[in-house]
Design brief:
By secondary structure, the protein is an alpha/beta fold. Helices cover 34% and strands 19% of the residues. The chain is built from ten helices and 13 strands. The strands form four sheets. The protein has a five-stranded mixed sheet, with helices on one face. It has a four-stranded antiparallel sheet with strand order 5-10-12-11, with helices on both faces. The protein has a two-stranded parallel sheet with strand order 6-7.
């Protein structure tokens, strides 16, 4: 049976959900092209939005695009489609990250229903830079999140107390390096939106999403304001024992980074569905020497791709997104 062409509204809706994904500094480093006759949605890297200083290998860029790819899979399943994904479809074009054939439901593969149930969490998931409760995470919920990462070929590790201390020390080391090296702050300053700019921005991190300054506590959060004044921000106490999780992949190639992004978003959507708030930090992973130290030398395997902070607390505000018309081409 010949597949029917997808209507423009459906394609636009799929891309809108895809672009709700998190990305480093909310740079949204992706573009999409829909090939109508083939029902093929292509995901491409937008290198104009790369982090030249803090992500020179584009590892974080691939992770963000992988998260968008996972949202696309969820949205397609919710729309009654079966997304068939091919990573890195053109070896000669490093910006070609994925090709997704949107098949009819008659060809739906295993796991489509499991993807569709996560759809409401796409719009509910927001990065929270607010204090969380000291309440522990139930072990069955941890198992669910571990399983979510494993479904995408990644490992989610909840480090023990001594390892949490190590990761927090690495965050402080990264902060100190930024303070000593002004070039390390260039990417952050490029992608933060202060004052009136925050109200009209469609990318970057607006000041209303910075969260309060930390008075005490040890939550690993990047201070997007730096030394710049932000009105009415306030100062509060954060948790002393943050619940951290390390997301790792067996390899450290562009394909692994894309898988890490998909695993990250599956974990975040599962966490959101379970009533958790979360935030991310790549700060201690932006230097090769610190990134190596983030791995648990006893139980850790592979390469750490992201540090997650999870807990019970307020969800952050929605951050701006570019209009679909700015990121989608249709041929």
């Amino acid at each position: 049976m010949t597949e029917r062409d997808l209507d423009l509204n459906t394609v636009t809706s799929l891309v809108a959900d895809a672009t709700a994904a998190p990305s480093m500094h909310n740079a949204q480093p992706w573009r999409f092209r829909f090939v109508t006759g083939e029902r093929l949605l292509l995901l491409r890297a937008d290198l104009s939005r790369a982090m030249r200083h803090t992500d020179p290998d584009n590892r974080a860029l691939h992770i963000g695009c992988g998260a968008a790819l996972f949202n696309l899979r969820v949205a397609a399943a919710h729309a009654g489609l079966s997304p068939r994904v091919r990573l890195l479809p053109d070896a000669g074009d490093p910006c070609a990250l994925a090709a997704v054939h949107l098949a009819d439901t008659t060809g739906a593969g295993p796991g489509t229903d499991d993807l569709a149930r996560l759809h409401p969490a796409i719009r509910d998931r927001h990065t929270s830079r607010y204090p969380f409760d000291e309440k522990d995470l139930p072990e069955d919920l941890r198992d669910t999140l571990r399983g979510a990462a494993a479904q995408e070929g990644a490992e989610l590790l909840f480090p023990g107390a001594w390892h949490v201390e190590t990761v927090l020390d690495l965050v402080r080391d990264a902060e100190s390096r930024d303070a000593l090296d002004p070039s390390g702050r260039e990417d952050l300053q490029r992608w933060t939106r202060l004052g009136p700019e925050a109200d009209i921005a469609n990318d970057g991190v607006p000041e209303y999403a910075f969260g309060p300054r930390r008075r005490d506590g040890r939550a690993p959060l990047r201070d997007f304001a730096g030394r710049r004044p932000v009105a009415d921000r306030g100062t509060v106490s954060f948790e002393d024992s943050p619940h951290l999780a390390l997301l790792s992949t067996p390899g450290d190639t562009p394909a692994d980074w894309l898988r890490a992004g998909q695993a990250l978003e599956r974990v975040l959507l599962e966490a959101t569905s379970a009533g958790l708030a979360g935030s991310l930090t790549s700060h201690p992973l932006e230097s090769d020497d610190l990134r190596t130290l983030a791995r648990d030398p006893v139980t850790g395997r592979g390469h750490v791709q992201m540090v997650l902070r999870l807990g019970y607390g307020p969800r952050g505000p929605a951050t701006p997104r570019r209009p679909v018309r700015d990121v989608l081409d249709i041929t």
